[in-house]
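Comment thread on ticket #2218

A.B. wrote:
> Attaching the input chain for the structure job we discussed in standup.
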Amino acid sequence: MKQPDGMQLDPAAGEQLRSMLSDEMQQVDAWLARARELTRRAPLGKNPVGEAMAAKFGNLADSDTGALGGVLTPYRQILQETHDAVTEAMKRYQATEARAIESLRKAAGTQS
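C.D. wrote:
> Ran it. Output below, let me know if you need it in another format.
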């Protein structure tokens, strides 16, 4: 359906986009799970330097606050918001299309 601003809504493309976003979210979830595994302290020795390095590496991998989580968590949120927006657009398109079909049927004097 051609929109007044030149945009075109293609339900097949919307579904393809939703699928791609879902796949990417699953990949990010897997990366976050692996990052959680990396937060275990590495056995670098029972000395101040070993303890400090083990803590530093664990903090970098922390899936919530570390370097990986600091990038992946917001990225995952953006993917989810985009997926939700595409889903909502597709629902609105389908509802509008259903109303248009019903209006045409009524105008033509037929009932569904």
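A.B. wrote:
> Thanks. Noting for the ticket: Helices lie at 11-38, 48-61, 67-108.
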